[in-house]
Amino acid sequence: MQMLRSAIDAVLPFPEEEWEAMAACWHPVSYRRKTVITAAGDVERYAYFVTEGVQRAFCLAEGDRDATLVFSYTGSFAGIIDSFFLQQPSRYYFETLTHSAFLRASYADIRRLMDTYPLIARWVHLSTMYAMAGMMERHIEALTLGAEQKFRRLLTRSPHVLQLIPHKYLASYLGIDPATFSKLLGSTRL
After folding, report:
1. Closest C-alpha among 81, 88, 68, 83 to residue 176
2. Per residue in 24-61, is it b (16+ CB within 10 Å) or e — as a string?
3. Does the structure show a pLDDT above 90 at 95?
4. Which of 184, 170, 190 is nearest to 58 (CA)?
5. 6/145 Cα distance (integer angstroms)
6. Deepest in the core among 23, 55, 119, 144, taking most CB within 10 A?
7. What proportions of the chain, in percent to the nearest 5, are helix, strand and coil?
8. Close Cβ partners of 68 (under 8 Å, ≥ 6 residues apart)
9. Mean pLDDT of the region 71-87
């Protein structure tokens, strides 16, 4: 629970009353490796905080080729955020890449907290805006950078992912061919 509090405090620290209300809504759950937690067409019912493991959100493109949208790992929030907040069917999948443990809170609980505590609503708003800003930055990179530039940005921003995440998923995340990823990995000084 301390890891969750640190992640929340990094965005907007809560007084004790708000923290106690927030903490009461998060419950532990775990899943085996390669488990689809949320499938396309499902409505995301939970927000997740990762306490162990690595996950990804992905979509299926033409020919059942998948495209990795985002990774989550220990210390981060996870799930299909748009489906969760809009309570609409997801267009994406959320799956574990390794055995994963989470704290999770239901939509009903988060909605109630937001309605009851303006500071929690503000935290949700800020957290969502930070996530959106990160997604926009990634979108710009995907549209404007070449394969090597995308690879170097990934290593600058998150060098630890090379040890955490299978390279085929990193290639998918960057939108480059796995063979190109391997060449870049072999030719780039880390």
Report:
1. 68
2. ebbeeeebeeeeebbebebebebbbbbbebbbbbbeee
3. yes
4. 170
5. 34
6. 55
7. 50, 25, 25
8. 56, 57, 58, 169, 170, 172, 173
9. 95
